[in-house]
Amino acid sequence: MRRRTSWLRAGMMLLALLAVAPLTAGPAFAGDDDTTLGIHPADEPASQGTIPITVTVPATAVEPGARTLTNAELRWAVNAEAGSAAFFGGCNFLMAGRPGADGNAGGGTPWSDDRQDLYRAVDGSVRVERTVGAGADARTVPATWADRCTAPDGLPVDLRGRVSGAEVVVTGGTGVRTADGAVDIAWTGSFTVVFYGGMTYWWATDPVLHLDADGAGTLTATAGGFAADRDDSTLWAPLPPTTVTLASFTRTRPLGDDGGRIAADYCGVALTLPADATQQERSDAAGVCWGSFPQNFVDFQIRAGQSSFWYSSGGARDPYKRAADVVVSFDADRSVGGAPPAVPVLAAPPAQPAITAIADQRPSVPAPSGARPGVASAGVASAGLGAPGLADATALPAIAAVTLGAAEPGLVPGLLTADDTRQTLAVLSTVLLLAASTAVAGFRKGWLVLPFSR
Known about the structure:
- This protein is of the alpha+beta class.
- Helices cover 15% and strands 22% of the residues.
- It contains five helices and 13 strands.
- Strands 1, 2, 3, 4, 5, 6, 7, 8, 9, 10, 11, 12 and 13 form a 13-stranded antiparallel sheet that branches.
- Strand 9 (200-211) and strand 10 form a beta hairpin.
- It is elongated, with a radius of gyration of 39 Å.
- The N and C termini lie far apart (162 Å).
- The relative contact order is 0.12.
- Keywords: Signal.
- This is Htaa protein.
- Residues 1-30 form the signal peptide.
């Protein structure tokens, strides 16, 4: 047993000596004092006294059938509300980059023409395009400050469904599309969504798209902006960068060879909201589904002051909140085009009386042959009030206008043509009372004097 142990120890010592032999024997066979191993690139000649060792790093293996993407394109209009008229401040619009030099507009006020330096249509790999024309004549053009509130037909956007049709375009996306159709693409750059002409806005930076082989996935980004409050114009606080899900995809299908349109979730998406927030409306209106943008996106918007812009809240703007489809092209030079936001066609509400009708006790008079000067006819649309479509913000119930005595040159003569004796006597009594009151006032003021008082 001792012999066997001795042989084992001797063998281990021999192996150790062989392992360090190149290091200790270096100077003997190299002819110098260099005791280092010569590890160097393959294309660099070995120096004297070194042992040439070539190290080859294998390239990253690419899955058979996978496609590497180097210039993918992302297009998104966000939703119809992002290109609509606003109740105040002009309109809502999209822009490239962040406002101004650092994203800070200085407060929650609308941007006037002398502050258009806050706006940009192009910023690095991000640009904003809008549609002009319709049908076969429709085409996309670069957006500008001057036309940010203009619809494709050249008219100002309004609150009845005429929107700008603008969309954000981001190019230069890098990633991979695997053989089974899964997609991972990352873009660099920012875009900003501006509401109420600049009173409130937020931005998204460096969007990332992930889709599995079935077409389900998310579009995420880092969101930022400033907290604002319509009831407190002094509130203007920077929001910390927050990773949010801009859109989620569950009811879609895999993209084609060149890309395609991805339907963003909205209809039927339920939220959990704070007790003091405007609660979600969960019943479908006529032709409009209830729903929401993703939960963490709305959580961020609550801090920004825009919460109910992004889910159904039972308000008049619910039809325009639905998320627009996302469009991805695997090569920006062969873009598959964009997807304007879905805009519902809503019929104007029928005219309804504002109060319960009361039986008309007035005498019948001939119908007026024409409107009198200064009397507006019911149903005539009012002109704009400075902001595009502001006059159409809320359609007030129409009430039929009635002009007393319109068929006669004077008010009283028209009433005296009535057959109702009681009404005639009432009118005459009123006239006599007015005359008596005027006479009394005249005597007191000295305007009138009795003949015998002189």
